[in-house]
Hints:
Layout: H1 2-30, H2 35-43, H3 49-60, H4 64-89, E1 92-93, H5 96-118, H6 124-146, H7 153-164, H8 170-174, H9 178-209, H10 214-226, H11 228-239, H12 243-268, H13 275-299, E2 301-302, H14 304-321
Antiparallel strand pairs: 1-2
Helix pairs in contact: 1-2, 1-9, 2-6, 2-7, 3-4, 3-9, 3-12, 4-10, 4-11, 4-12, 4-13, 4-14, 5-12, 5-13, 6-12, 7-11, 7-12, 9-10, 11-12
Amino acid sequence: MTILLLIAGLVLLVVGGELLVRGAVAIAGKLGVSPLMIGLTIVGMGTSMPELAASVQAALAGSPGIALGNIVGSNIANSMLILGVAVLLAPIAVARGTLWRDGGVGVLAAVALLALGLTTGLGRVAGLTLIVLMVGYLVLAYRQEKRAAAHSAAFDKAAALENIDPALGTQTQRQSGWAVSLAFLLAGLACIVGGGTLLVNAAVTIAREFGMSETLVGLTIVAVGTSLPELVTSAVAALRKQSEVALGNVLGSNIYNVLFIGGVTGTIAPTTVPESILGFDLPLLIAISLAVMAMAWTGARLSRIEGLALVAGYALYIAFTAGLI
């Protein structure tokens, strides 16, 4: 029953994120917000909604291991499992300027989270600071898109979601009425709140029943589950030979997870960063992010061999984290 509740929570989170984004995009279009800004903000944040709901509700429930484990674990899954699968499907050619800009922001965000964990914790001031940094990144991305510079990871993240849901296009959404748009928005919020509650409660129960730490559950079960939208969107982009979108989706998700989700979590429900995450998982995330940048820099592409290495490395990480090796 607990496993079923966990699955139900994940399904509600994914469905809720979809409905919320549809409603928000429609309302933003009716209010005259530019399609570019809608893509960078509302659509770009769409696949991060499951992580946001899970982390905030876990922090409110007094389970920092699940809240922070979900953020850090999702980024590790993005950088190894999801990027590895995308590369196995189609090798990725890399624009080095984009890689250093967006990959560098992701690394700096992880370093900032590590520094906060070692000092003040993820309190309200720290959370607000992360949100301000997120806004600054979006402003930078918006200006570069307006200048027709190389696409930002935030833009590619939105494009990856629109790949599997063309109805998110603002022209289509403007045709729906206010009542329908608001209904989508409210239904999405309800699903996200309900799904997050089910997921967190089930995760805590699993941790207690099987003698697992909440941090372990957050880093593995919750992190992988809430990263499923990123896995699907990156895989679809890779299959369509849109390799830059697949990579941008991963880099963008990593930025959103730390700055946006971490910021909102700290602002709404201040929490500490578990010592095990500070001592191992966050440094590992930083190392992995730098390694991916190095791989792409050396050959201006990520090959299938490197993709296989990333997936195998993630399998080893899960085995080690679960105490199997």
